[in-house]
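S.,

Sequence below, as promised.
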Amino acid sequence: MNLVKFTPLRPTLHFTPPTGWMNDPNGLVYFEGEYHLFYQYHPHDTVWGPMHWGHAVSTDLCHWEHLPIALAPDAQGACFSGSAIVDEHDVTGLFDGQPGLLAFYTCHRVLSDDPENYEQSQCLAYSRDKGRTWHQYANNPLLPAPGFKDFRDPKVFWHAATQRWVMALACGQEIHFYTSENLLHWQFASAFGEGHGAHTQHPWECPDLFELPVDGAENCQATSRWVLIVGIGATPDNAFGSFTQYFVGEFDGQRFTNDHSPDDVMMMDEGRDFYAVQSWSNIPGRRLAVAWLNNWQYANHAPEAGWRGMMSLPRELTLRATSSGIQLCQRIASECHEALTAVPHTISPQAMLGVGQYSVLTSLPSVSRGLLELTLTAGSRVALSLQQGDHQQLTLEAGEEDVALRYTRNGVNGQAAFDDHFACDHAAGSVDGLTITVEWWCDHGSLEILVNGDTQQRAITQVSYTGLTTGSIDVRVLEGSAELLGGSVVSSKGAVAH
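The prediction came back faster than expected:
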């Protein structure tokens, strides 16, 4: 393949680092009116390297203030992924009786000239000034290296029913759970993962675990369930690259029990570029999460302009009872809508009775949010181009009672991609019913799609480089017929994320 170079525009709505390289979101916590976003950061290059924790804060999830680096490599090792919480009642004794912030992270220490010869341990840092400066806990590590390599990414949370703190930790091909009364001394509780979900040559990583109420609980006899999120990195045996799976089940403070068949693999996002998902702690009444919008197959080769990497838009997570079990559903956080103009462009209803192409909107702003509602006849196929041309296309294939989704990405602005792995053509799940709603958020370098059926939902997040300031929405009926019930497009007010 003839690979091309491409200089990206900085996204308008999506968070990016000021300079250098960024990957996993870390330490997401809400404290005293501020959303904290930490992230895996290499400030001195635009490829992965010695990991720091970059840091930014926001009061609205849209406008972000970059702060100094929170954690940096030292003689003990680099600072890999982890989580942050509020020590509200000073159970650690580190805050003189006042609330403070704690960051749990993995110390990654390379033991020789071979970068694959390493050990990992779990460490603690704390801040007494709302996250502006950080101090290492004197008795680190909290959990020393166990004698095997992959032991990382601590996610810490409070389990109210047992009145204990819990740490979910990625350990090889499993998630291990530890408990603590004081956040300093931890005891092993159980392990989950063997024989469940997807496994590749890459270890599991970046866990998250939280409880959510179930919408439609009267259909499943469960008022709430726990969601365990797990990331799997890119390996030669996994053509999809890095991806995020999730499990729905019960957690009793010690052990996670999977509600679904061990063979079920539930993807949190059917696109190629939604990884290392983490949710904010300490937000009352909501569960908001964000992901790294890239894929380890090609992230180090992606176009850069002195910075490389972006986060997804924040998403609010909910659980919904469906005919196939309880499903995790997502919607873009309501705060993101505040970054859009007030007056939408309305897309009128249109009958599409036969094979042919229908231009729905010829002047689509490159940074915008769109919505289309369509009804397909059984056996029909419809292709949607939501940015410009056919280099990114969502195909809808209607069965008797559901619609299967397929996503195609051909390259960069219709040209050959920057990496052999970038182009893709893959199934993206299905939704029930023949009337569906397609919502999408376009930004420089990305396209986030949410497809909603009667009760089911699919998310598809893709890196997308067009280099254009305007695009178009095209609908093409490939087989059968369909009806466009209407829609709208709203453009961005301007740069807000940085």
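The chain has a mean pLDDT of 92.

Coffee later?
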